[in-house]
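Lab notebook, bench 4. Still working through the backlog of constructs that have no structural model yet. Next entry is a single chain of 287 residues. Request: give me the structure tokens for it.
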Amino acid sequence: MNRRSFLKTVGVAGAVAMGSSERAGASSESGGIEGYAILVDTTRCVGCRNCETVCAETNGLPEPDVMDDSVLEAVRKTDEKQWSVINRFDTDAGEVFVKRQCMHCVQPACASACLTKAMKKTDEGPVVWRGNKCMGCRFCMVSCPFDMPKFEYASANPKIQKCRMCWERLKEGQLPACVENCPAEALTFGKRSEMITEARKRIVEDSDTYYDQIYGEHEVGGTGFLYLSPVPFEQIGFRTDLGNVAYPLLTQDFLYGVPIVLTLWPAFLLALSNATKSKSESEETEA
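Model written out:
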């Protein structure tokens, strides 16, 4: 292989790699459609746990025993059988109840880490899991900063389970079940920008009640669940060390470089091998 053939081989491979990187970048960008969000006002939540019940009924999950208040003595996490939980915290402002579920990030790390696009950020806002595309790698679980996707380890046909923000209901023009059935009106549903505006309005109009922050407005690039609190958020179990940069943006330079390395390096070795082989054959002919 002469110099021209060598450069041509590497050049074509580079063009293919750059094209794949550009497509990866394009696919990661938002389509410009504003998604929905849910504003959770913890100052209004009374801990009735009705949201837990309707979530289970809507999604075919085991119905929780909401009369058993002993479960509130410890902080609970969501699991594969319960996508939404209420926790109770003793804070500087007294007793505060907090609903927890998937946060439905604006730029979700789980969807970015999913090799088969089984985890998807929908145009409506919810982040959903599609079983027909999943290969069971569970990278979504590892990548989530809020530890929300859960795997059915005990199932013969395991699924990734988490809140879907009632995506099926949204497509039919209905409210998420938890929002529609909250008797204390602690949950408000609407476009994300509208929910941020509403949250800021409440903070300004009642500054003695609210801590001056909307959790989820900026954290990890923004989330689809937004929270108001009477106290700093670390007092009610939220991580405050996550930063404001979306997690996929922290790794995109590396990930975009992977296809280039994987494509160019084999091409380089192939060209080098052919060049060496040609030189060896030439020397044998001369001999």
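Notes after review: The CA atoms of residues 19 and 146 lie 33 Å apart. The helical segments are 3-28, 50-59, 109-113, 139-143, 167-171, 177-180, 192-205, 247-286. Flag for follow-up if needed.
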